[in-house]
Amino acid sequence: MAADTLQVETSYRQIVKLALPISFAMLIPQFNFIVTNIFLGHFTQQSLAIAGITGVYYLIFAMIGFGLNNGLQALIARRAGENRPDEIGKIFSQGVYIAIGIAVIGVALTWLLAPVILDRVIHETGVAAIATKFLKIRIWGLFFLYIYQMRNALLVGTNQSRYLVFGTFAEAVANIIFDYSFIFGHFGLPRLGLDGAAVASIIAEFTGMFVIFLVIWRNGISSRFGLFSHFGWNATIVRQILSISTPLIFQLAASLISWEFFYILVEHHGQQALAISNVMRNIFGILGCITWAFAATTAAMVSNIIGQGKQDKVQPLIGKIMRISTSAAIIVCIVINLIPATLLSAFGQDQSFIDHAIPVVRVLTVAMVLMSFSTIWLNAVTGTGNSRITLGIEAITIVLYSIYIYVVLEKFFLPITFGWMSEWLYWISLFSLSFVYIKGGRWKAKVI
Fold first, then answer.
1. Which of 95, 104, 361, 368 has most Cβ atoms within 10 angstroms of its Cβ?
2. What's the pTM?
3. Nearest to residue 160, comparing CAs of 150, 169, 152?
């Protein structure tokens, strides 16, 4: 790739060059999440269990922002492929308006509706009130998170993913320090327990946002793309962003809502089952940060390559990314299966917890391998700009997933190991539908 162009090549070196910083940037938030849950596990098992429900709830709104950013990234990468840097700042500034608007809606919904919903679906006495109190604090982090997330769309879309690590590292340090301080009441700060994790996360998100925009400013990226020069309302660009992002927002929100549904059904199996499932989500994130990095790379590179008019290189590119992603997944899953008890013991639970969790780990690692190539194909669909197709694929898959978990966990009340097999169904369905669409070739006529 020439120094004066934003266009990418389809080499393995280019793929890894883009994906590694993204992977690191995703690994640290997952590490933050794991550290928080380890702290909460040592605080009380109830806190660890409740964090499963509240964590997925907040993740729903985080994924809405991620959906917006996926749409922005596809647009920015397309303009980069067309070598039109002047348009990138305009897209970014309008994205800020949209992000703030979505954050306002998220806060309002949480304060008005979350207490009612949680009170009706959670069975254990007192849990709904504790979860609601946590969420009413945690949700204010959306404003910082959404603006912070937009650095992904900008830096990945313009092939500058190496800068992602600075804000992420700052966020990690802040998260660990303030988690430890507020959960347990150290360094003269109040002992807030579960609520302390909410306060710490908000401070960490603000820190990450502040540092990454400082880096963007210091490296001349803001002036190169005119990030802060186009804050007048541009209805045409807003419609363009929403046309691509809205289906992705609904896709990711629906996916996480179905996961929240899963956790609610698991809660009916008792506190230990819920705590085990929360730990599984932590383990899932260990590999997820690698796979999702390659998925983000896929969406950006596919869009960039199409912008260059090289549609014939899209499928070979997907194959290259898939081979790297799946190889990494297999290696990580082998390691996890060799030391499951050691991994689980970090969460401060007893031997009974570990014994019941190990079979779920085995099921989960198979799902991780399936995810490693399925999400590559799904994000290739996103990269073509056909986000409505992505939404359709997700919708079909979620219906199948939801039916499965309801029948297995609620109707037949089978152990949660069988419930976690729903991940196999989910990723196989996503892969099959995405593969058929890309192979069909109709995406080649799409213009964004």
1. 95
2. 0.73
3. 152
